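Per your request, structure below.
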């Protein structure tokens, strides 16, 4: 019989032999799978319309796609984006347009991996309905057929800008032309504008602008049906503008500020006819207001007509602004002769002047400002009238 020590020695020798044999058997190395990642992981499409006035600073989100683990110098890699409701296939969704890439591929609009199977490419997010999407690469490995990577998740968001045309800001006055820029809605759906008394369809109009249709991509690119004019039949201040998609249920909002405005009229009839000048000689003129905050009070005899050096007192009745923010005509009398210079008006602690852009212009001046070529840049003024004293007074604009 073998001793216990001898048995242990035999056992250990056998284990070592088995280990040597196992080490000699080749083990298959698992191939690395090509992958893509994206940054950022959410964004929006372009906010623009047919005016081409706002594309300079409202462009779509730029997305960087990073690829790794591709075959060395894998060529002709394209990038696609598709809804998560679609299967990831070589033709799913839409191919994005690459703006920048680490190395151009042989095929149009493609990128090539480097010797380590790495690449980067940048594209601007196309206009798509809000939701979750996969971003993936399409490529053909050597000796194989076209295939895809797994998708990198990306959230497309709906968004809005509400901009006054001449100033390209979210502040306007009575009759300002306002563009509602959208992205992320369902193609061709009708969207509603809330509040319904924010805009009207024409200057000095009463027909409310309450809805329009987005384009086939769910945005306002190329449209001019997304434009209205600030209504004079609502109070001013900050307005929360809400856009609601009738079929998608998508809702976006943006704040817009309406500044109060005034105008003087040379007669007291019921139609506002803004003037650019009032008489030099002591006179009675008629004050109108639009888009004031409701319940604002202008105490009796408190309005001042001013030059740079002098303030001229007036007499008039007390004005309490009604709920629609509009008042007039209110008789205002001044008893001193005015110098024939540019004037400003002070009422309720607010200065109204050409530079403050809060005097209502006559229609001819307003239309001249509308006709400014907005794709050349900012207009001379927001949408503004002026006030001067002249002899004779000139209600017109030439």
């Amino acid at each position: 019989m073998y001793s216990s020590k001898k048995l242990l020695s035999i056992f250990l020798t056998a284990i070592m032999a088995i280990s040597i044999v196992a080490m000699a058997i080749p083990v298959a190395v698992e191939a690395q799978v090509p992958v893509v990642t994206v940054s950022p992981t959410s964004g929006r499409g372009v906010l623009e319309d047919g005016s081409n006035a706002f594309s300079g600073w409202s462009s779509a989100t730029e997305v960087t796609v990073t690829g790794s683990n591709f075959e060395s110098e894998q060529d002709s890699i394209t990038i696609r984006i598709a809804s998560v409701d679609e299967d990831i296939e070589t033709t799913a969704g839409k191919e994005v347009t690459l703006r920048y890439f680490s190395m151009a591929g042989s095929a149009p609009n493609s990128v090539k991996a480097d010797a380590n199977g790495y690449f980067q490419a940048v594209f601007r997010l196309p206009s798509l309905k809000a939701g979750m999407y996969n971003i993936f690469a399409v490529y053909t490995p050597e000796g194989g057929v076209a295939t895809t990577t797994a998708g990198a998740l990306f959230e497309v968001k709906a968004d809005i800008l509400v901009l006054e045309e001449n100033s390209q800001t979210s502040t306007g006055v009575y009759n300002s032309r306002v563009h509602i820029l959208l992205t992320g809605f369902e193609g061709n759906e009708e969207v509603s504008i809330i509040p319904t008394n924010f805009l009207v369809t024409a200057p000095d109009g009463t027909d409310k602008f309450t809805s329009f249709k987005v384009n086939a991509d769910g945005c306002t690119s190329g449209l001019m049906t997304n434009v209205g004019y600030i209504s004079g039949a609502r109070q001013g201040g900050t307005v929360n503008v809400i856009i609601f998609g009738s079929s998608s249920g998508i809702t976006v909002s943006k704040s817009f500020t309406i500044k109060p405005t005034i105008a003087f009229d040379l007669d007291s009839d019921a139609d506002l006819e803004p003037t650019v000048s009032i008489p030099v000689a002591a006179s009675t003129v008629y004050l109108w207001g639009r888009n004031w905050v409701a319940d604002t009070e202008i105490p009796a005899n408190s309005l001042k007509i001013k030059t740079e050096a002098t303030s001229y007192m007036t007499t008039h009745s007390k004005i309490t602004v009604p709920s629609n923010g509009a008042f007039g005509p209110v008789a205002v009398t001044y008893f001193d002769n005015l110098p024939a210079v540019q004037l400003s008006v002070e009422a309720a602690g607010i200065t109204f002047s050409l530079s403050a852009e809060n005097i209502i212009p006559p229609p001819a001046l307003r239309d001249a400002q509308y006709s400014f070529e907005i794709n050349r840049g900012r207009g001379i003024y927001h949408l503004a009238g002026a006030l001067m004293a002249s002899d004779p007074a000139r209600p017109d604009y030439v």
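Confidence is low (pLDDT under 50) at residues 373-381.

Regards,
D.
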